Amino acid sequence: MRVEQELVQLCAPKDGPPAEMIFGDWYPALRADGLKRGETAVTMLLGIPMLLGRKSDGALFAMRDLCPHRGIPLSAGWFDGETVQCKYHGWRFEPCSGRCEEIPSLTSHDHLEPTKIFANSFPVAERDGYAWVYVPEAGAGRVTDLAALPPVPELPKFGKRFRSAHLVADLPCNVDHGIIGLMDPAHGPFVHRAWWWRSAASIHEKTKQFEPIPDGFRMSAHAPSSNSAPYRLLGKPVTTIDFTLPNRRYETIRAVNAKGKESWFASLTTVTPVTASTCRIDVIAAWDIFYHIPFVTPVAKYFGAKFVAQDQQTMIEQARGLRSNPGLMLIDDADKPAKWYFALKQRRLIGVGEHPLNGPVELHWRS
Ligand code: FES
Ligand SMILES: [Fe+2]
After folding, report:
1. Tell me, which fold does domain 25-148 have in CATH?
2. What are the residues whose beta carbon lies below 5 Å from ligand 2 (ion)?
3. What separation in Å is there between the alpha carbon of 281 and the centre of ligand 2?
4. Of 5, 257, 289, 296, which has the fewest beta carbons less than 10 angstroms from its beta carbon?
5. Integer CA distances (angstroms), 115 to 67, 98, 118, in order
6. What is the pTM assigned to this prediction?
7. What spacing in Å lies between the alpha carbon of 89 and ligand 1's midpoint?
8. How far is the CA of 181 from the centre of ligand 2 (A)?
């Protein structure tokens, strides 16, 4: 029996190497647009089990999914639209603040004031259909001054009328591999091979301008790859790609077609640590290109999903390799953005250091 158990452990897939995580920032926890009043959902964010829900008045909440009394998940209990009640001893919590409202076992002989007890709750804000949760540093205590927090990330939109779509994919590798995969320019011709996008034979030398921005870098305005078919439909598009810590890639494309009509596309892609060893990629996109054509959204979702699935499949294979902890390398210039990411992250984690870019730079690679 013991031998069998050991064998099972040896053969069970292990998570790959962990990455250090950046606390003290906003992360998309889950899609909130499907969360109705009185409903809850559970997820994991930066290794923290989370219970999210929507109160009867529409307010979202995010709590650590653990009762402060004896540690049972609060999700095992009940939510009546107002308070979360623990299944074990019935303690009742107001979920936005985490404040304990009732301890059923107390009698007139007790002097314990339940409202002095707090379950962990986190600031949460709804943007673009996501519940964004602010995850403070461990031991930082309850966040009471919401005005002191950084702004909640949001997808930029350049008009009132637009269509939008979102995609999600779990990645079995740590957040660093997820992010450097996201900014990696050299994998395109190999991972994203498809007749509708591009072929490996279309590989050619590229030169791109980068510039520093606070906590990140920008691939300066340029016309997107001439070898990508969908881009040819837009007119004269100008693309900007920003990466900012901890995990955000903003891409905007603004184009003027032959008739002088302006149109735009914007996306926000985030790679969020689920645990120290695993992450999830979320893409939200909005556009007013082809606004009047009804089936563009499902078509865009279909191709977007294929694109993300190609990255996901590659990272599943990569994770298999990473489990043996191989040495890795970053080469110039194609992996330069990855080097900047690691330098920026290190600077954020230790709180000192220079921005890795001290001015605009030009990178060259073939893709
Ligand atoms: S463990 Fe939650 S009330 Fe006791
Ligand atoms: Fe990719």
Report:
1. Rieske Iron-sulfur Protein (2.102.10)
2. 311
3. 11
4. 5
5. 15, 9, 7
6. 0.90
7. 5
8. 7
